Amino acid sequence: MTMLDWDNPLETQTHNKTDVDSALVSNTLSRAASYKEVQTPSEEQNLNQNKLTPVNPEDKRVINGQTDINQLAPFKYPWAWNFFLNANKNHWTPLDINMAQDVTDYRHKLTVEEKHVYENVLSYLTTSDILAMRNIGLAVMEKMSAPELQIYQARQVYEESLHTWTYQHCIETIGLNQSEIYNRYRVVPEINQKICMANNRLDSVLRSDIDLKDPDELRNFVLSYMFFAAIFEGCWFYNGFSPVFALQRRGLMKGTAEQFQYIMRDEVMHAAFGIRVVKQIIQEENLKPDKKEIREMWDEAYEAEKAYTNYILRDQILGYSAEMHLGQFKYIANRRANQLGLDEEPFPEAESTLPWLDEQANLRKEKNFFETRVTEYQTGGALNWD
Ligand SMILES: [Fe+2]
Ligand SMILES: [Fe+2]
Hints:
Elements: E1 2-4, E2 12-14, H1 17-39, H2 43-47, H3 78-87, H4 100-109, H5 112-140, H6 147-174, H7 178-187, H8 189-205, H9 215-240, H10 242-249, H11 254-284, H12 291-312, H13 322-340, H14 357-361, E3 368-369, E4 373-374
Antiparallel strand pairs: 1-2, 3-4
Helix pairs in contact: 3-6, 5-6, 5-7, 5-8, 5-9, 6-11, 7-8, 8-9, 8-12, 9-11, 9-12, 9-13, 10-11, 12-13
Bound molecules: fe (ii) ion (2 copies).
């Protein structure tokens, strides 16, 4: 009988079932023997029986909580669980999308200027997704003290790695030079600046000695999470796909654009979830966000986006411009400020410069993979693009 080898699941091996079973039994028995003493309540535990009652959800906190992190429900944050359920409705792999036409488009139809845009968008996004994964998985998750928050964040970590796979699939399929594309963020200052801004924030919250009971550490952590959710994912990423959607509108690089549509769905949820968590911390910890600090964050983010935009769109392409890209950044930044519940919009004069974006970013349900496969994974109704 062919069985999956759990030590090496990619290899199927032929096992004698009896041998596997008996090994499991003896292993379990030896573990049971070593657990025996632990399972007997100690005198101290008997004296503290009240500590063994189920977790009261009202006692849960986003950070600095004292409740047992291993008890999922009852939920204090049922919305977090709903984010997890919703995230599982957007499920795909990059292999589901046909990239054949993109190879032809890239080789024979894109102009030099359009190739410059396409390659730099990929290069920027793929480095950013590594950072997004490290932020949530290594810096944020461990600080959460309610498990329902960590469950969605664990899904988010997976999604960021899926996005990284997607860019790699595009880079590999198109036949771009991998060393050059993945290293580009280090040699192009306009990309490097955005990556460094994020990396500095991440480094400041990735330390093992961080104590969120310290007001300065707490303020810095909240600001960093706000940056990653509202700016890094909510503005830079959200806006980052648009140049390729503009190519898609002209019938070019449609496979890549479809990959980006799936990624964008995830990113919209990442931004919304992060913003929700940040607001919850602000409420629970009774914090007053520093207006000046937040203003500086928007200004820095805008300046970095401006340099990046002027680099990727240094030469004009048809149907998309630096003015459109930057105008949309400001418009989306206002949306994120409103979601955060901040008093002031950072760019009150801004208007949407890409009126086609929401429509273009939506996956239409009549669309099929390879003519046969229905792609409407989102079964719970349309996503709200906010
Ligand atoms: Fe991502
Ligand atoms: Fe993300």
